[in-house]
Amino acid sequence: MNPTPRVGVLALQGAFGAHQRSLAALGVPSLEVRTPGDLGNVDALVIPGGESTTLWHLLGVNGLVEPLGERLAAGMPTLGTCAGLILLASDVRDGRSDQGWFSAIDISVRRNAFGRQIDSFECDLAVPALGPEDFHAVFIRAPLVEHVGPNVEVLAAVDGGPVAVREGPVLATAFHPELTGDTRVHRLFMDVLATRTGQVG
Ligand code: GLN
Fold it and tell me: What is the CATH number of the domain that holds 70?
């Protein structure tokens, strides 16, 4: 039997503490990931919201671009939210010229384009994969998913635009599931992790 999978939260910038609290509410301890050594100690990773340009810069400064790219290419279960979704995308539009991304999920995103008129908003979202009750979703300068590849499952959409997507071990949301008390997105991520590592529970 596999040992209990270790979950990391990228802790360079942004809302990592709130993700750790959501995981803790599910009884899942998490490790803060800031270095390649930290990354080597985890089986799964949460990439939080924040600012994707800054996150990319800090990943470079901390020597994480290459090792994280390798782990993602090897299929590490990963949850990316907002800026985290941008970093996981395969095509980033309106990015900064020095900004990179990991191409871990086959989606095209446009930065700061979702709900252009109002930077931030909240709505109740139907997410059938999470059960019958709506999920209260908080959007903060969110990326707009403009295209999804054939193997990407759209878990939720707003006005036809995907806002929660999954491809294999990668789960990503344009909104911030860590900012409400609802832990169902994190629960789903733990289920993805369980199926990937042969763990039950
Ligand atoms: N607009 C941010 C970016 O481009 C993402 C915002 C967020 O993570 N809340 O990185």
Answer: 3.40.50.880
